[in-house]
Amino acid sequence: MNLNEAVGMRLKKLLEEKEWKNYTIQKEGGVPRVTVGRIVEAKIKIVKLDTLYQITQTLNISLKEFFDDPIFDNVTD
């Protein structure tokens, strides 16, 4: 699995845990829902760090918490 796929899967999992939709990130944090959707679907090749930071702040977690997941142990690129 590549990094953008892992980021997308992690974000999807966090959204599901909170029972949030992509729109909630837009409403609460200002990141367009289309951008969130493209990240979740791994359609963005490079996720900007400032965008990911804005998303994690909206989810009320740190970047460390975001990346502290076993899914990132399988990243190959």
From TrEMBL:
SUPFAM superfamilies: lambda repressor-like DNA-binding domains. This is Helix-turn-helix domain-containing protein. GO terms for molecular function: DNA binding. Gene3D superfamilies: lambda repressor-like DNA-binding domains. Residues 30-66 form the HTH cro/C1-type domain.
